[in-house]
Amino acid sequence: MNIWKISIKNLKSKSFYTVLSIVILALSITLLLGIQQIKSSFEYQMENNLGDIDLVIGAKGSPLQLVLASILHLDNPTGNINYAEAKKLAKNRLIKTAVPISYGDNYKGYRIVGTTDEFYNFYNAELAEGKFTEKSSQVVIGATLAKNLNLKLGDTFKSSHGLVDNAIDVHDDELIVVGILKPTQKVIDRLIVTNLETVWDVHDHDDEEHTNSHEAEHNDSETHEVHEHDNEHHEHDEHDEHDHETTDEAHHEHENHHEEDKEITSLLVQFRSPVALLNFPRKVNESSNLQAAIPKYELDRLYEFTSIGFKTITWIAYLILIISGITIFVNLYKMVKERAFDLAILRTYGASNLQLIKMIAYEGFTVAIIAFLAGFLFVKVGLTLVLKTARLGFKQNIIKTLTFEDGMQVAILVFIMVTLSIALAIYPILKMNISTILSNEK
Amino acid sequence: MIQTQNLTFKYKNQKTTIGFPDIHLKENEHLLILGKSGIGKTTLLHLLAGLLKPETGNLTINNTNINTLSSSKLDKFRGKNVGLVFQQKHAIQSLSVIENLQARLFFSNKKENQNKLNDLLEQLNLTTCKNNKINQISEGQLQRLGIALSVVHNPQVILADEPTSSLDDENCEAVINLLKQQAEKNKAHLIVITHDQRIKSFFENTMTL
């Protein structure tokens, strides 16, 4: 027999209150840990996906949309920009690398991104098997995608137009898988990467058909305008204002293989020095039709919007934590008060005040430790289930395992609260007058 | 050996001080203290057990002046040397019969001896219910457990507070006999405090408050 055993027997003898205390405390711990994990996973995922991208240049519109669309591949693009103009910007000596990306098609909901080989460097992506793309119609796929769609090297598929899976607007060109990337836990895991030509070719063929079938409706002036434009396009800065004509232009230029007049969706930029962030974006925004957005800044803005939700749930979790603290306190206090005679008897057995305090403390901490472990388990199992059913993370595994620090933070909080409850509950023991308690019982 | 000298006690918030007659018990001597309700019998018992501090006077149990002990030393001394029997039979509710006895031994820093425990349970006819919780045993069993708890650690003094007042004649005699028998086995002093005149004949030494 020892104090531990007596504490455990005490807990067992009032099992209903013990279980109640554990459940309430476990619930609040689950909430706190869960929120922390989702929040840190969310932020980690966002920041991780930025890679080394300092700036995105795209068509005018919402900067947040541009970042979400071009970096996280969550939203629709703001529009297209002229490749030649983008290239001209990229020649700035402040820029270390500028990677053009072009997209607008998908395969079963996974985006097809036309880009250059430098794109992989942003994510430190390496090939698991196969090779990088060498010519048009070849694609390299991300790890998540390869797993979910069960695609292997040499497999072919046809992309559909737009960014949402559909069976109606399917392109004729077959794309062939030549490489599969290793998992990176970044956005590239769920992308189909190809070169720019693939995207252009797919759309040019479509445009060709489109143009041929409607040739009768097109008048000569448009063709004329295109030729005129062709001659002086190097001096023409307001190129993409002729938006309604671009499809025809693209068609003609493709025949002449003038890459400079192609369009891309956006340009991902990495600077030589962060100092460039001070002036370069403003210059782009003021002096051209292009828009420059700083991903870090836009994402910070996004956190501000979403943090209200996180804050609310966090406060609710703290509230439950306080309630569970009160429950533990009430149970211990009740035990001390209702069992004053038991405690007095233990004193006559030779138990010291310290031993009685230990007994109460063991009971409180046993409840707390069981609740903490239960909470930890609930979070692990619960979040996995929730993410599986709710398909959060946009077809990507976003869960970041809880760090030791995250767990410790909650553990310390719970520890402080339980200690406080115990300290309040043992107060009557210190004031206990054994003689009076034993006499009054008669 | 138990000896008291000029013990007085003052209740909190009361002006009057009550004094108690001196007690002097030699080895193997027992004592019955008789007195009406409210005269301070329990107070005297608690003084003897070291649960209350006297206003003046000395209390010596086997050459230890327990008035001079610090409260933690007093806890230890009480645990080791004093066995208490209460009128309201009581044991720790969350523990079984045997676990109560084991807890009693633990707090008095005495080693568990399974054979001795079984013997004691046998003597007090508690073997059949030794694994039962306190709320699952009968009144008589609880009474006998109370006696077992007061002697399991081989104390030098057994202090019994009204151990028989709620019992019929037959059980009254049985309980007193058990207490005396256990006291003699342990070579302990038995001091019974009661207003129950029936047990007068069982004691050579009596004292009236």
TrEMBL record, chain A:
The cross-references to InterPro entries, in alphabetical order and at most eight, read: ABC-4/HrtB_transporter, ABC3_permease_C, MacB_PCD
A Pfam family reported for this protein in Swiss-Prot or TrEMBL: FtsX
User: Where in the cell is the protein located?
Assistant: Cell membrane
Q: Which residues cross the membrane?
A: 16-35, 315-333, 365-387, 407-430
- Nucleotide-binding keyword on record: no
Q: Which Gene Ontology terms of cellular component type are present?
A: plasma membrane
- Protein's recorded name: ABC transporter permease
Taxonomic source organism: Neotamlana laminarinivorans
What lineage does UniProt assign to this protein's organism? Bacteria, Pseudomonadati, Bacteroidota, Flavobacteriia, Flavobacteriales
Automatic annotation (TrEMBL), chain B:
- Residues forming the ABC transporter domain are 2-207
Coiled-coil region list: none
Pfam (any one): ABC_tran
Alphabetized, the UniProt keywords read: ATP-binding, Nucleotide-binding
Under the GO molecular function aspect, what terms does this record hold?
ATP binding; ATP hydrolysis activity; transmembrane transporter activity
**What InterPro entries does UniProt report for this protein, alphabetically?**
AAA+_ATPase (IPR003593), ABC_transporter-like_ATP-bd (IPR003439), ABC_transpr_LolD-like (IPR015854), P-loop_NTPase (IPR027417)
Q: Which GO terms describe its cellular component?
A: plasma membrane
Query: What is this protein identified as?
Result: ATP-binding cassette domain-containing protein
Native species of this protein? Neotamlana laminarinivorans
Q: What is the lineage of its organism?
A: Bacteria, Pseudomonadati, Bacteroidota, Flavobacteriia, Flavobacteriales
